[in-house]
Amino acid sequence: MIGKRNIIIIVLLYCTTAQAQQDAQYSEYMFNLFSINPAYAGSRKSISAVLLYRNQWVGMKGAPVSQTFSIHGPLTAKRMGIGFNVVNDNIGPSNNIGFFGSYAYHLPLSTGKLSMGLRAGLYRFQLDGSQLEYKDQDKFTNASISGRFVPSFDFGLYYYTNTLYAGLTVTHLTQQKIKYSSAVDLRSQLYRHYMLMFGKAFVISDNVVLKPSFMMKYTGAAPLSIDVNLSALFKKVFWLGVSYRTSQDLVFLTEFNITNYLRLGYSYDLGLNKLNKYNNGSHEFFIGVDFKVGKTESISTRMF
Q: Of the residues 135, 179, 215, 253, which has the fewest C-beta atoms closer than 10 A?
């Protein structure tokens, strides 16, 4: 059963996650932009797959744990890209899973390309009744409380050159209501999220590239969240970076290009707020594989 400490956690998560951050939070989004913008599909000119695991607020029972798998690539027409991703989030007694497909069209411009993307899929929400403590035990049981599958639709814009990107994403366009298939009267809703992102690479020398980037996230009834990042690429192999999130998180991150088409990433979030007293930070790991399509450029030369 859930004790006082866990109840506080779940309340916090409901306030900040169910209404403010229903979408999983990623610290290494700048290395995997497809996870947050469907218009990115096909922009790498290769078939790109990423498997990611995130353990947030380690040591705090009921804290979010997320896994996601995504794959995307260009179609033979080369102006179009498609992708697919699966997301699984566990937060306290809740488990949320989603399946999504994406389509993007890349329009060549004089200085770069503008991509427009759509993502559509289904979410399923479920509560583990064994982790809940009810006042009326005669009415409620410890059985799982399943939510019905609900549709979700996202839209994205993504402009990019060899050294610059800018994007806009709007998720959960229809703000679908969530109903649970149980006698328990539980209701929720998918809230629209807005994300604005920008990044620019500066070639300092043959061995050093600097890449500042930022992302702003907004949804109703929640404070504006801003991530500011500075990463450096050394010898076209090793990325090191640091980010600051206005939710008072300091993030240390790295990416290692093991080969031209295989990369590993890790990040550690150090909380600077009062919640830091109850956890040991957050860890995020990912592995990315790129499969060559035609005369694809080496992944080690890619800035984004």
A: 135
Q: Half-sphere exposure (CA, 13 Å, Cβ side) for 280? A: 5
Which of 83, 84, 65 lies closest to 74 in space, CA to CA?
A: 83
Q: Domain holding 87: CATH number?
A: 2.40.160.40
Q: For the segment 245-289, what is each residue's pLDDT rounded down to a tens digit?
A: 998 899 999 999 998 889 999 999 998 887 777 888 899 999 999
List pLDDT tens digits, range 214-244.
Answer: 999 998 878 899 999 999 999 989 999 999 9
Domain that holds residue 208: 4-301
What is the spatial distance between Cα 159 and Cα 152, in angstroms, rounded to a whole number? 24
Which distant-in-sequence residues (6+ apart) come within 8 Å of 84 by Cβ?
A: 70, 71, 72, 99, 100, 101, 102
Tell me how many domains the chain contains: 1
